Amino acid sequence: MLFNLQRYSTHDGPGIRSVVFLKGCSLGCRWCQNPESRSRQQELLFDERLCLAGCTLCSERCPHAITRTPETLMIQRTQLTAADFEALNGCCPTGALSICGNALDLDAVMAEVLRDKPFYLRTGGGLTLSGGEPFMQPEIAAALLKRGREAGIHTAVESCLHTPWSYIAPSLPWLDLMLADLKHVDEVRFKQWTDGSAKRVMDNFRRLAAAGTAITVRVPLIPEFNADRASIRAITDFAADEVGVKEIHFLPYHTLGINKYHLLDVPYHASRTPLDDPELLAYAEDYASAKGLTAILRG
């Protein structure tokens, strides 16, 4: 299941890249900026600001799950079926209703990706898989990376590494770079904020290092979770001493994804204020540099 294909990206690996976003994730991070990526199933997004008063196109196509009232549109998302998503796809003239998620066609995706091959070759760019968690669809991830490598372009994956190792291993022969999140090394804190296991992530980091995989560590700095000096030291120490990476990226928390929660009608449980702490960011850079890492701040 695919939910986006972004061309001309310059922040998802080296050079100019095309990023294929796959649906499905095994974590439930409070601050997730792509909540529409968590489920492996299609989802309905609704922006009431764009909804035309009196329009009944969607409720006519899906009367058992969508009801028009004088004030607004009432949607029972749990009642939607695959047939409903098909019926609703493209029916809204303003885009107030939109479908997130489409069945992935390998040939079509790679045809789109390879349209920009000259730019990849000129800049050292290529194909990046993102999500969600790409390794939640292990066969698809491996197939896309294999086709990218066979086409002579650089391949990368953005991953939270919170999957069984057996989901990751099939992709390694076709992977040039792993862009991996290291959110925390404290098991209790990690569980509280992500519903996952830090141990699983750390074990996968160790296995990747043992396999000789090129890794760039990414650290989202989240207020009240890991945006403090002790957490930064622990994360950086693990990256440098146990994984042996050369580059670490610090990503200050932002709130650009909050509106997506409204579109999905789900609550948001993280801070509504972006991280604004230049002193802490400078400390993170300095500490990582002292450990021998190249530290980069990503806005």
Would you mind describing this structure in some detail?
- With 299 residues, the protein is an alpha/beta fold.
- It has two domains: 2-38 and 104-297, Aldolase class I (TIM Barrel), CATH 3.20.20.70; 43-100, Alpha-Beta Plaits (2-Layer Sandwich).
- Helix content is 33%, strand content 20%.
- It has eleven helices and twelve strands.
- The chain has helices at 57-61, 82-88, 106-113, 117-123, 138-150, 165-168, 187-194, 198-210, 229-243, 258-264, 278-290; strands at 2-9, 17-22, 43-46, 66-68, 73-75, 97-100, 126-130, 154-159, 177-181, 215-221, 247-252, 294-297.
- The chain has an eight-stranded mixed beta sheet with strand order 1-2-7-8-9-10-11-12.
- Helix 9 (229-243) runs parallel beside helix 11 (278-290).
- The longest helix has 15 residues, at 229-243.
- Helix residue percentage: 25-40%
Which strand order spans the largest sheet, edge to edge or round the barrel?
1-2-7-8-9-10-11-12
**Approximately how much beta-strand content do the residues carry?**
15-25%
* N- to C-terminal distance: 28 Å
Q: What summary fits the major beta sheet? A: 8 strands, mixed
Looking at the structure, the CATH topology of the largest domain is: TIM Barrel
Question: CATH homologous superfamily of the largest domain - what is it?
Answer: Aldolase class I
Instruction: Give the total of beta strands.
Output: 12
User: pLDDT below 50 for ≥5 consecutive residues: which ranges?
Assistant: none
Tell me the number of structural domains.
2
Structural class: alpha/beta
Which shape, going by the Cα principal axes?
Answer: globular
CATH class of the largest domain: Alpha Beta
CATH architecture of the largest domain: Alpha-Beta Barrel
Number of helices: 11
Radius of gyration: 21 Å
Determine the mean pLDDT: 95
Order of helices and strands: EEEHEEHEHHEHEHEHHEHEHHE
Family: Belongs to the organic radical-activating enzymes family.
Domain Radical SAM core: 11-291
Protein name: Pyruvate formate lyase-activating protein
Keywords: 4Fe-4S, Iron, Iron-sulfur, Lyase, Metal-binding, Oxidoreductase, Pyruvate, S-adenosyl-L-methionine
